[in-house]
Amino acid sequence: MAASDTMVTADRSSTRERAAGYLLRRHRFRAAEALPWLIAIAAFFLFPDRMTFGSQVLVMVMFALSLDLILGYAGIVTLGHAAFFGVGAYTVGLAAARLQWTEPISGLFAAAIAAGIVGFITGWFLLRYRGLTLLMLTLATAIMLQETGNLRSDISGGYDGLPGLTFKPLLGVFDYDLYGHTYYLYALAVLAVVFYFVRRIVYSPFGQALTGIRENVRRMHAIGSPVHWRLVTVYTIAAAVAGVAGALFTQTNAYVTLTVFDFDNSAKVMVMLILGGTGRLYGAFVGATVYMVLEDYFSKLSPTFWQFGIGLVLVLAVLFARRGLLGIFESIGQYISERKKS
Amino acid sequence: MPHFAIVAVSILFDGLAYAMFLFITSVGLSVTMGLMGFVNLAHGAFAMAGGYVVVTLTRTLGVGFVPSLVIAAVVVGAVSIVFERVLYRRLYKSTDLEQVLLTIGLAFMAIATATYFYGPIPKSVPLPDWLQGDVNLGFRYFPSYRAFLIVLGAALIAVLWYAFERTNIGAKIRAAVDNRRMAESVGINVDRLFTLTFAVGSGLAALGGGLAIQLFGLSPSFAVLYLVLFLIVVAVGGLGSLKGTLLAALVLGVFDTAGKYLLADAGGFFVYAVTVVVLLIKPAGFYGRE
Amino acid sequence: MTAALQVEGLNRSFGALPVTRDVNLALERGARRALIGPNGAGKTTLVNLITGALRPHSGRVLLDGEDITRLSQADRARRGLARTFQINQLFRGLTVLENLCMTIGERDGHCNNLWRSAGSRRVVIDEALDHLDSLRLTDDALKLVRELPYGRQRLVEIAIALAQKPRVLLLDEPAAGVPSSESHLILDVVAALDPDIAVLIIEHDMDVVFRFAKEITVLVQGAVFTQGTPNEIMNNEQVRAVYLGQERHRGGHHG
Questions:
Q1: Cα–Cα distance between A18 and A16 in angstroms, integer?
Q2: pLDDT of residue A4
Q3: Cβ pair A315:B106 closer than 8 A
Q4: Of C143, C164, C185, which marks where a domain is finished?
Q5: For residue range C75-94, what is the model confidence (pLDDT) as tens digits?
Q6: What is the dihedral of CA C181, C185, C187, C191, to 10 degrees?
Q7: Could you give phi then psi for residue A149, rounded to 5 degrees?
Q8: Interchain pair A224, C125: CB under 8 A
Q9: Per-residue model confidence as pLDDT tens digits over C34-58
Q10: Is the CB of residue C51 less than 8 Å from the CB of residue C73?
Q11: Which of A196, B23, B222, C161 is an S-S bond match for B249, by CB 3.0 to 4.6 Å?
Q12: Shortest CB distance from C114 goes to which of A18, A204, A225?
């Protein structure tokens, strides 16, 4: 009797240790996480003449990452995420065109703050709603911002936009070059910094609470979680990140128009994230890259064909691959490791 | 007549015609969303398809405009049944997001197909004589087409109201919108009811698409551009409500027209501002259920 | 002495239908009260009103003397009011351990922290594991909740409520849906609850009620029909007529 009791206790404590260990170590960096960065750097050397395109991919990765915070982690579906991208893009554009403020890094901060403020205000009002109501409210907000810009097209440049923007050299030293090399590395560095912050948030107790809200908001209320404040907080942060993506967009394109607010943009980033896989951080990387590369290739071949293809992929993804490409990779990985065991 | 009255009458008239278009096209979406909770973003594509059927019938096959409208409604309604049975049915229990994504995917495919067969340039249709020109209503001349739209809209509203409020089937639909499980337990076959409402709704959307050609021209992007408008009408009116859709169509149609008349550039703003205000106060829309 | 939970004159209707009619209820510290009544009596509605999921049309709810009628569900939970749901409300896509850590994290305000990793809070994990130990759920700690059999999920539901360290605990048919072979697990837990907690349990199974309850409130058509000790209720002719005619002796069924 005594011996088996001791064994049971010993077993239980080792189970405890295993369980605790899993949670204690979950946030540590894994080797595989270096992969996307290595690929990004490799691209710099392998495709030196595609670096302007490369910057656009990085911009969309950041945009998709910001959406993952609300859609993937908090489980909130919106149709107006482009609003924050647009606010960030126009903060930098207007500062450069109207205020002659062309220092790039401070531009990023200004964009983050501006977009964050818009995110906070709209989030505070709108996140009390869900479903179709929220979809329509967020959609309407983005369109209204766009229409406001159109109203004062003397300031905003309307749909023709603000072309020919120039920016000061980065850190006073690195200047824009014709092939976009400087700006690619700049975008990559910004993405790395932003990603570090987003990753910390996701693995924090706050990030855990977000997944709780996504999984069962009723339960969250019942255990005392201030759900609305959690959502407003993540919405504000996501807006700021989207704003930085928009700012980078203007800086790397030296051009911005009101089309950044289009519903098309909101839909596109959602498709990218879904394709890659939501709630996994790296889904944004995979989805945005794959989408941009395919779009670049196919829409040159035939834009109609591209649109049909993307529609078809969406339909198939919903029917057969709900967890996106990362989900498929994971399933393949599981299948392989199960085959190895047998 | 004093100037402002003339402007007011013009706004009301054009607004009413626009509202009729919105109502005819959106009512199907409202009822199907209210009945099954299914977010169908391909609804605009059904309207677009109806428009292109009318274009082909009138321009290539020489069929009259009004008969083409009827044929388009019937054809698209019938085809929509296939979609419902084969695809939509599988997602009734899925999340909103999945329904949104699937139907957007379908809409993209539809737009690409239309672009392939008809090209991206907006199309028009030949109208019969009695729909061209103006009609004299005593104190003013009004475009005949818009008058036709208003009359047709009113007639359809009457028919739909009668069907909804006075027939057996209408009662069943209302019951199922109100409480699906209760309706099922009383023996109402909600699945078949849904297929029927879906087909009628899509047929009406096709009719709306055909009617829209003369108002806005028809290009493949119609499916997405006007979808936003239909969704707004449905959200503001309240899911599953005939009255709500009508009221929302009227409010939004008149406001949008007024905005465009009076504030040219800022015009588009109004519809969205009204939407936000209504939804903040009544998140389920005018006649929606919380 | 102030009651742990006090309900005064609570009224609520759904449209024209009154579902809670002038309900008065008091739970002292350490109370073990069962709330019974026929189907549709409004028991879960009453619990919803107490926890704040529903707002009453009139009446008050007091927690340790404090009027919480205007407070949100979350605010009430933070003041020590916990509940379980009749149908499990769990974080099904997360592990059992995460379910508990989330609860403790929200209770102590850890979840306001955006910077430190969730794993760095060793004390939270240890407490979560202690709760799992006491409910014999340790082996399931890393399993996803949706992979557990329903009976063990029900235990997780109770574990979450207990992890809130409540002063007042409302259990809505804790053994509902649990196969009879497993229901003793639930009932053992209920029997072993901290004597300081005030507990209100909605139950249909009379065996459970008589085993656990020191007092019983009978709810019929939204109003309190009668209250008393188990013996008084069992010998009450009217209660028999209204309700005990439907008595069941087996555990593990849906209410």
A1: 5
A2: 55
A3: yes
A4: C164
A5: 999 999 999 999 999 999 99
A6: 150
A7: -60, -35
A8: no
A9: 999 888 888 999 999 999 999 999 9
A10: yes
A11: B23
A12: A204
Least Cα separation, residue A74 to chain B (angstroms): 13
CB-CB under 8 Å, A200 with C114: yes
- Which chains lie within 8 Å of chain C at 3 or more CB pairs, if any? A
Q: Do C62 and C102 fall into the same domain?
A: no
Q: What is the pLDDT of residue C249?
A: 47
| The predicted structure's pLDDT at residue C246 | 52
Q: Which residue of A has its CA nearest to C129?
A: A16
In a domain, C86, yes or no: no
The region of weakest confidence among A37-41, A331-335, C77-81, C163-167 is A331-335
Nearest CB to A308; choose among B87, B113, B272: B113
Q: Identify the band that residue A156 occupies on the pLDDT scale cut at 50, 70 and 90.
A: confident
Give, as one character, the DSSP assignment of residue B218: B
Contacts of A226 in chain C (CB under 8 A): 74
* Residue A303 in tokens: 């834009």
Chain A residues close to B117, C-beta within 8 Å: none
Q: Which of these, C119, C34, C72, lies nearest to A223 by C-alpha position?
A: C72
Please report which helix (H) or strand (E) contains residue A180, including its range: none
Based on the domain organization, do C107 and C176 belong to the same domain?
no
User: What residues of chain B lie within 8 A of the CB of A151, using their CB?
Assistant: 265-266, 269
Mean pLDDT of chain A: 88
ipTM score: 0.89
Q: Which of A132, A153, A304 sits opposite B115 (nearest CB)?
A: A304
Residue A294, chain B, CB below 8 Å: the answer is: no
% chain A with pLDDT above 90: 55
Q: Which pLDDT value is given to residue C244?
A: 56
User: SS3 of B141, please?
Assistant: strand
Mean pLDDT of B179-184: 82
Q: Is B87 exposed, middle or buried (0-12, 13-18, 19+ CB in 10 A)?
A: middle
Contacts of A200 in chain C (CB under 8 A): 114-115, 117
Alpha-helical segments (H) within A49-204: 51-67, 82-98, 104-126, 131-151, 153-156, 181-203
Interatomic CA distance for residues B74 and A177, integer angstroms: 60
Q: Does residue C173 form part of some domain?
A: yes
* pLDDT (average), residues A39-55: 89
Q: Which residues span the domain enclosing C24?
A: 1-80+166-255
Domain boundary among C109, C130, C164: C164
Measured between CB atoms, which of C53, C111, C121 is closest to A225? C111
Which letter does DSSP use for residue C121 in this model? -
pTM metric for this prediction: 0.90
Chain A interface residues (partner C, CB cutoff 8 A)? 12, 15-16, 18-20, 22-27, 200-201, 203-209, 211-212, 215-216, 218-227, 230, 233
- Tell me the two tokens of residue A126: 């709108």
What b-and-e string marks burial along C104-131, b requiring 16 or more CB atoms within 10 Å of the CB?
bbbbeebbbbbeebbbbbeebbebbbeb
Domain boundaries, chain B: 3-281
Confidence of residue C253 (pLDDT cuts 50, 70, 90): very low
pLDDT of the residue at B9 = 85
Please enumerate in sequence order all residues whose Cβ is within 8 A of that of B258, keeping only pairs 6 or more positions apart, or say none. B11, B15, B270
Q: How far is A141 from chain C, CA to nearest CA, in Å?
A: 28
Contacts of C136 (CB under 8 A, 6+ apart): C155, C185
CA distance A229 to chain C (A): 10
Q: Give the three-class secondary structure for C5.
A: strand
Q: Are residues C62 and C99 in the same domain?
A: no
Q: Is B272 on the interface with A (CB under 8 A)?
A: yes
Give the residue from chain B lying closest to A273, CA to CA. B101
